[in-house]
Write a structure and sequence with these properties.
Elements (H helix, E strand, L loop, with lengths): L2 H4 L2 E2 L2 H7 L25 E7 L5 E8 L5 H7 L2 H7 L4 E2 L13 E5 L5 E4 L3 E2 L7 E2 L8 E6 L6 E6 L5 E6 L9 E4 L4 E5 L4
Antiparallel strand pairs: 1-4, 2-3, 5-6, 5-13, 7-8, 8-12, 9-10, 10-11, 11-12
Bound molecules: zinc ion.
Length: 195
């Protein structure tokens, strides 16, 4: 079994039902229910800001939303990536691979590669999840109300492929006061190459 699949994930009942018997789950700590959204129009597009791997802004681009069936996502994602980004599961705190990633670079969506966060905005929140005080571009993430866990939270999703990334809270540090609380499995880190 791959190390990554042994890592704990917090599942909702819907997520568990969707993945069936998933022997890699160590813990079922809580539940998460995310409201279904209406289906996308066939040719839905979204404006994304593209960045190169050094974090340099390339420019805005109108792109077709990335759409795949559940089976197609399963085929291209690891199990932790699938259950987090497609079933809105949450990693057990301190279990994610990117929590202690401190190199310069950018974090891209694990599902579609959209640039999401710069390592310059990563900070130690003490929560056990990778935390950022800003997104690279507001266009690249979208927020949605999430009433699960008995409280209102702002779910954060990738604007291009709708991957569930985590939640954003308003108790973050300066200069924004925001805390993007992310799942490692939803992100791919691209370290900045030495010049
Ligand atoms: Zn994405």
């Amino acid at each position: 079994m791959k190390e990554a699949t042994r890592r704990g994930l917090i599942f909702g009942a819907a997520a568990l039902a969707a993945v069936g018997v998933f022997a890699g789950v160590d813990h079922v700590a809580s539940s998460t229910f995310v409201k279904d959204e209406p289906p996308l129009a066939p040719d839905a597009t979204v404006e994304i800001v593209e960045f190169d791997d050094t974090g340099r802004r390339i420019g805005k681009k109108q792109l077709h939303k990335v759409r795949k069936t559940e089976t197609e996502w399963r085929n291209v994602l690891t199990t932790p990536q699938f259950v987090v980004t497609r079933k809105a599961a949450t990693e057990i705190p301190y279990s994610g691979e990117l929590l202690n990633e401190h190199r310069a670079g950018i974090f891209r969506c694990a599902d579609c590669g959209t640039a999401l966060f710069d390592a310059k905005t990563k900070f130690e929140s003490g929560t056990g999840w990778p935390s950022f005080w800003a997104a690279l571009a507001d266009e690249n993430v979208r927020e949605k109300e999430d009433f699960s866990m008995g409280m209102l939270r702002r779910e954060v999703k990738c604007a291009l492929c709708d991957a569930h990334l985590g939640h954003v809270f308003t108790d973050g540090p300066d200069p924004t006061g925001l805390r993007y609380c992310m799942n490692s499995a939803a992100l791919t880190f691209v370290p900045q190459r030495a010049a």
